[in-house]
Design a protein that fits this description.
By secondary structure, the chain is α/β, with parallel strands linked by helices. About 40% of the residues lie in helices and about 15% in strands.
Length: about 350
Amino acid sequence: MTGLAGLTAAAALALGACAAPNPSAAAGTVVVAGYGGSYQEAFEQSVIPGFEKSCGCKVTYIAGSSTDTVAKLKAQAGRPQIDVALIDDGPQAQAAQAGLLAKLDPARVTRLPQVAELARLPGDVGVGFGLTATGIAYNPDWFAENGLPEPTSLEDLASPKLKDKVVLPSITNTYGVHLLVMAAKAGGGSEKNIQPGFDVVRRLAANAVTFDNTADVSNYFLQGQAAASVWGKSRVETLADKNFPIKFVYPKEGAVPLLATANVVNKAPHPDLAARFVNELLGPEAQKKLAQDGYDGPTVKSVQLDPALRDKVVNLDRAAELTRLDWATVNAGRSAWTDTWNKRVEA
């Protein structure tokens, strides 16, 4: 999902500020499965050491896409080996429906009442801890040099001038699912009428140099292979932080909110520590650090950001304007959509 570029030591302390070590809870290793790339680096270098020190436990981080993590949960359903799963809201809905995730205990995850309604998940099976959006990412310098105005719609990515300069997300990741639904709405359809989406995506695919299944298209931009993509705002801001010319656009057909969710796995080996880990992700200091270092918008209502930072994240006011997906409908059709995508789009 989102890009989280190197949390500071202060973030680690904020995330690790749980109760004094409990000898009985300290036994064993807490396994957290979550995003790779910059997220993995941040959690392994900053978050995990502080949490281990405060909680008297060990943490193993397993990196993978959200779909990879859900696949692991399914494979381990009889005997779970993962305690906490950090996954996008779409795959999370699938995992929750399959009974792979536990209802959060309000006695342990005490910050749940402070979370905005957008990030409260059905039955409190998991919770959103970071917010971003999927829209259009583009290189303004390349566009200016090639006489193209700022894109305002997905259809703008079908311009002949963008031939072999567009990287599209694969249907195997959340960005790809968002693209298909956004395209369907651009073509007059919706989650319940997805066929117009394939027509729009096929037009865009004529310009695609590749379909990315990693959710991180940074290198395509850095190496000059991509001038535009469908990507997340937090990822765009993270790359812009490195002085690369890139901007994010909320397309006129509607951007889609994307929640990073934290979940205690059903029958987790260490449920108490897992719940405490989730609770600390909702702490005000941790929420601010997630925004400062990775441009994930806070999901806790009381968190206030500096104006300059607030403009770089998807804040809760902006989130209210975004087009939320009907994940029940999406997940019911996802297998068939993937089959059609493979035959009509990437083929």
